[in-house]
Every structure is written in structure tokens, then in C-alpha cells.
Amino acid sequence: MLPLRRSLWLFSWLLLFMLGVQFAIAAPQGAPADRAQRVVHILAYIAGDYGGAVDDGQVVSPSEYQEQQEFSRQAQQLLQSLPMDAGSQQLHAQMQSLITAIGEKAPAERVRQEADQLRLDLITHFNLQTAPQQTPSLSNGKRLFQANCIACHGINADGSGPQAAGMDPAPANFRDKDRFDTISPFGLSNTIHFGVSGTAMPGYGQFSQQELWDLAFYLSAIRYDPQQIEKGKALFEAEPSKWVERFQGLRGLSAQSDVQLLGNRNDPDARAVLSYLRQEPEATRSIVPSLTLSRERLNASWEAYKAADPERAYTLAVSAYLDGFEAVEPALNAVDRDLRTQIETEMGLYRNALRNRLDVAEVEPLHARVLASLDQAQDVLTSTKLSPTTGFLSAFTILLREGLEAVLVVAAIVTLLVRTNRRDLLTRVHAGWIAALFMGVLTWWLARELIQITGARREVIEGVTAMIAVVILFSISYWLIAKLEVEKWRRFLHEKIQKASGKGSVFALAGVTFIAVYREIFETVLFYQALWVQAGPSGHTPVLYGTLAAFVALLGVVWAIFKLGLKLPLRPFFAASSALIYLLAFIFAGKGILALQEAGWISSTPVSFVRIDLLGIYPNLEGLMLQGALTLAMLFALFHTFVWAPRVRVAH
Asked: Pick from 399, 430, 355, 351: which is nearest to 554 by CA?
């Protein structure tokens, strides 16, 4: 048994190492992405300031015009240092066109449009994060401004601070509507982070991502008239879904300027609503932006595939599901479960088509079908208000579904230790699941505050931890079967799990409780975030009651397993424990494979088979093969224990 145990733990530690690598690379701002972000930052500066350098084909500010030329050349050099791929030639052509326009002293509108278009294409091409993961806090932004910026920009953010005298160029006046109508909060956050070369504006690299967004949104919101804001509030509250869709939710508010969002149209109602949403970005929280993101990534994926860039197309297709659609799954599940399953399946078929490099003509209808289903989902979600009953049941189902597997593992192991008179190990096992709760919440907090854990990495975390759980749970189940034979069981009690075997059991049992709980808590919190938004303020109370009811139900499951386990005779107890733990390993295997497929780590081969979410059974060949292998291994263990071993003893 010792070589087998060492092999199992070596495999588990290897998987843990892979998980650690995922955390190490969780921030998307690697070297290429950081340079791409700098190019985007420079382009935003050009789009906003070129008009102050050139007017009607004439240079009105030589110093600013020289600055525009220098910045555009710097952006070109950075772009040339980025990795080349199938889509790079178009980006380089766009950059050269922009440099030519600046050199020819082209009209400001043309330069702005070219710079903005190149910015958007760079963001899409490099999959840059252009929106915060949580709603920005304008009050915190104001605090940061007062602590770091008023010396130059002034208490009113109008550029009249005590240190502003003699600065060239002068500090920005954030109340200048003409200028800042062309700059997005995303552009401002980049400026704050990187600073502006050749000016007195330093970079604030010490700010966290969320602090950058807080400050950028605060500065983007201070130039509006209070009466206009009040008018916008009334208009928004009358038709919230209309306006959220119009401005693409928090993502649109973050990534686009007023000019981009309004389209230069003279629409006073739209301008008023936009002024209100700049002040109250929390109001944009809705299912619409996530579906919009999903459509955008799917369309970008389709364009990349047509441009003979299948790897990028596949990456964007994975992001369309994980960073877009997955956020609305809990809400859609509450009102139309069949549609949710349909979209999951269609997105999987589209990804498989890209991975298998099918002809463009074969992929096109798959792409169109997914877009049509997303439109249907949006219609369902925006027209269906989450009733109190649905909110309660959704909250109850999420916690019960996600928590049941973890609770079953912990309850079964605690009962096992009590029945084997190993209460001395209970403290360590309890420490395992309690640590998992803290680690899960910490991971969620890190994902919101410090690092960007994308949907793909989130699925990798779930998939890798599931695979570790499979290894440990299956080994425990196999060990329990071996103890069903009475003589072995008596000898086991006599030895009391001594020496290496006992130590291995301690770490295995404590480790599996940690993993089983950790893999559930992070996803549960994310699901609740989506449900909380969908329910709205009036639906929060039913959601809380549903959560409480599920918690009580899970406690009931723990109590039932513990009481039943204490009353069963030893042989039936070990048989039941082995069956339960094996079943959990079987479920984790299916769900782990599915998570890794959704993250794009392994391929998915659809087959005609039933789908049973509760048992982790999904119609894909890879997951079914692993579950089949586990089933064969368990059948072999049963055969060896009850058929082969008794015959060998009789023969001897």
C-alpha cells in the first residue's frame, strides 16, 4: 500500500502545483498585455488632446502638436514589440494611418475616430479587461482624489491647485465637458496608472485595480449638472432595461466615452440618463451587459476564425461563455432551465468546431445559432421579473446544490473517524473545512480586489481541485472496501492505524475536506452575486430566506448521516460509506472534466448520452471515459475483495 499511497500523493501534489501556477498567472497584465495596455493609454490621450494642437489644418499649439507626434511614434514602437499573429497586420496598418493623419494635420474628428477604433481593436485583440469586477465607489474615489490630487488639480478638480502655477501643460480641468466627453473611465484609469510622459503627471502604480476604477469614475462624474442628473434618474427608473442595454451596462460606462456612447447624437434624454449613470454606476448592474459581452466575444471569435486565426477564435469563444454567459446562468436557470442547457450545448458545439478547424461554411450556422439563443435568453430575462418565490427557490437550490457534495464528504469522514475511535483526528479534519471556507472567501476577495481571475481560470481552479478530490476520495473508498472483510477489519482496529498508514490517513482526510469545501465556496459566492443583482432590492429578502433554508437543510443532512452512521453495524456502515464516497468521486470526476473543458484545457467530444447534472454525468466522451474507468476500478475492487481474495485464502 505504501508505494500506491506515495503515488497518489505525488499526483495530488502535482495537481496542487498546477493550481498554484494558475494563481501565479491570474493577473492578466503579463508583459505583452501590459505593453498593449500602454498603447491603449496613449491612443486615448491622442484622441482627447489632438484637438488642442491642431485646428482647421493649422497647428495652434506647437508644443502639443510635437507631443502628439512623439506619442504616436511611441505607440507604434510599443505595438511593433508585441507578438505577431494573423491579426497584427491590420493593427499595424491602422497605426500607420493614424500617424499619417497626425503628420498631415488632419481634422480632430478624423484623428479621434481612428485612435478610438484602433483602441477598441487592440482591446478586443488582446482581450484586455476594460471594466471593473465590482461597482466603483465614487466616495472612495473622492477620498483618493483629496489625498493625492488636489495639490495640482484643486479641491474642485478644475486644475487650480496651489502647485498648478507654472506647470506646462497645466493640470487637467476635469470639469471641461468638451475634453472629458471624449475620455472614458478606462482611459482615465490608464492615465492614473501610467502617468503622462513629459508632464508633471506621475503614475500611481501603487493603487490597486479597484482604486484606479474608483478614482476614474469619480473624475468622470463631476462635470454634470445636478438638474440634468435628476432628470436622468427619473428617465432611467421608468425604463431601466432599455437604458442599461443602450449603454451596455457597467462595461459600456467603463470602456467608452460619452461621445462614443451617445454617438454624437443630439439626444437630451440619453445625455441626461448617461449623466445619472455616471453618478450611480450601481444602477447598471443587470444581466444585459454579460450577454452583450458574450455576443461581442462570439462575434470577435467568428471574425478571427474567418481571418485564419483559429487559436484566437477559440480563446474568445471560451471567454464568451465563461466571462459572459456563465454570469447569467443562475438567473436563466431560475426561469428557463431548458434554454440554459441549450445555450451551453450550442456554445460547446461552436467551440468544438473551432478546435477541430472545420470549414468556415460549417462553423457559420453554429455561430448564428448561438447568437439567436442569446437573444432569446435576453428576452426571457428582461421580460421576466424574478418573483419572491423564484428568488427563494433559486437561492435555496444554489446553496443546496453547491454545498451538498462538500457536506456529504465532511459528514461521512467525521462519522468514519467516530466509528473507528479516532476522535483525536476530528480537530484536524474540522480545521481542513474551516480553512477552506476562509480560503474560498479570500480567493473571491482577491479576484475582486487585487487580481483578475478570468472565467477560464475560475474553471481551472474548480477542475483541478475536483481532480485532486477524485484521487483522494477514490483511494479512501477503495480502502473502505478492503476493510469490509471482517478479519482485516479486526486486525485494522488492533493496529489503530499506526505509523505511516495513520499519518497518511490524517493528511488524506484533512486534505479532502479542505478541497471538497474550497471548490464549492468560490463558485457559490459568484452565483449568489448574479442572483442578488437579478432579484433587485425588492427581492433580496426572499433570497436571504432561501439561503437560510438551504443552510438548515444542509445541517439536517449532516445530522442524518451522523446519526445513521453511528447506529449501523460496522460492516454495513463501511459498505455505505464506501458507496457514498465513491459516488462523490464519480460526481467530481464528471464535473472536473467539464470545468476543464469549459476552460479550454482539454477537448470535448459530444456524444449521444443522457445529461444528469446531479450525478455529474454530461454527454461528452472525455468525462464519460473517466467515470467509466472509475466504475471499472471499483468493480475490480469488489471482485478482488469478495471473490478472488476468499478463493485464494481457501486454496492456501
From this structure: 399
